[in-house]
User: Fold this.
Amino acid sequence: MNRRRVAAVFVRIVAQFRRDPRTLALLFAAPIAIIALLGWVLSSSGTTTAHVAIVNASGNPAGDAIVLKLTTALQGQPRVEIASDVHDAATARQRLIDKQLDLVVTVPADFTIQNRKIEVTTLGLNPAGESGVLPAIQQALIGAVAQEAGAVLPTIERTSVYGSPDATQLDTLAPVVVGFFVYFFVFILTGISFLRERMGGTLERLMATPVSRGEIVMGYSLGFGFFATLQIALVLAFVIGRFDIPSLGPVPAFAIGLGVKTIGSPLIAYLLVLVLGLGAVSLGIFISTFARSEFQILQFIPIVIVPQGLLGGFFWPIDQLPSLLQPVARILPVTYAIDGLRQVMIAGADLTSSAVLLDLGVLAAIAAIFVVLAAATIRREVA
Amino acid sequence: MIVAPSQTPEAAVEAVALRKSFGPIHAVDGIDLALPPGRIYGLLGPNGSGKTTLIRLLTGLASATSGTVRVLGVAMPSRSNLARVGYMTQADGIYPELSVWENLRFFAALYGQTDRAAMIKSLELVDLAGRLGTPAQNLSGGMRRRLSMACALVHNPAVIFLDEPTVGVDPALRVQFWEHFHRLAADGATLLVSSHVMDEADRCDELLFIRDGRVLARGTTAELRKRAATDNLETAFLKFAGDSAGSATGATSAKETLR
Assistant:
């Protein structure tokens, strides 16, 4: 490995980036914009008000009593608004369809003291969003019915080993987003750069110089690692930091950065993402062998990137995946990065934690495998 | 950096029974070569006759199906030996977003050329020293070709392979290129220049007619003209092609492929 030749490849990649401001902007502005958007959406999605109607379809006094109890209980709840002008099931149903109501609580026709069944109806177009208001409603229902029966409900207090039980979705999603962005961008940019090298005849010229395949892969890793480093630093600073800017004249007060609560070391988080990114460099070089155009590189996104997003623990914990998919998830690098980042940022694990070391080790091993695969695809015999 | 090993090899470029097959097709079909140093060799033949494959075998970019190659006495492929070899490909093979200087500096570093004066000089020779900061994508086609040549010669190689270097180059510049080639040969470099344009043949010290992966004839232009009993090199090529095919149809098909 000749240091001067590796440095030449590194310097060349940096120069190419410098002369491509749009790609630079994509690299740095795009993740910030998307994470800011995500933060905005997640922070306000919990503050919408649920419009609720409570209807007594049984017509008997026991039902009326329940309705009264429920109404009182729910009126005390935050983010719940009771529609007092709806009294029959048909109107309530129509209001649901017209989206004027989010949820209807019905005391059914056959309700008696003995048969205490209560129906809760939602529209069903967006089950995940609708279920957001359910816990508060259920709590109120149980409370109301129990009180009717003369019982007192215990109060439940939640705690968690790591983080805070009221950690927002953003707090747990942020680490994942950081890792995923770097992986995606590094993969796409290396894939396309190296494809150009193959198609533009420059790889043939490189092969006619004393440079070795290892030196090329190393130079690429350093070059893209350099930009990945800047990107990770910026994205992590944005996710963790928060800088409030007071209102100034007509401009309202706003904050830069999400201020996600993290207790782990940002350096270890950075290390995890960097090793993940280095694997993506070699993966990009490797994949570029199978593409004949930039468009064909993009075709690898649903094959290489999307499954990692679905299976890597982004949406569902690995343990909850179907048993056939679990081994698949366990060979994906993003899985280990996400786990490591959560260990570090939420559980505050450091390098003494065996879980973090395992994640780092697996990521490094995956990167090493792809370095070998990438080098194998850079053959002297290109044509 | 003209390398002069203590035991100067007889031939700068040497191939023995060189063969390259792609399945049933023999792109190079048993070529024996010995090219003494300090001369310009013209590799002439129609498109698809095996010129590029032969050059790629000689540089070690392709692996031979059978046979051996030695460049400056070293068996190819040899990565370190490539520091003494220059190869200008048919495609420009430069980075369009990089400037003239950045392109040249990159290839110089890969070849181990650290002498800044030599780097500037290789740009002066192709008349690009005044455009160091210009991105390659803003250069004209002829200028890109010249930059490509400067990148191939920046390390003063002792053996130079030029694959159709004058394609798309205007006549005035073509004259400059050939003057440059002759200066390099006079300094002791060995040049193998491929072309399918017969009027360039007269500028070479020696010609190799190649067709279907075989060398049909070799010699100076005068020798070849005499042997074929014609002043026209194209006619001479067709005659050798006809002789090798052993029939008039061979000559006709050769004439067609030349067009």
Observations:
- The first strand of chain A starts at residue 50 and ends at 56.
- The mean pLDDT of chain A is 82.
- The CA atoms of residues 84 and 171 of chain A lie 37 Å apart.
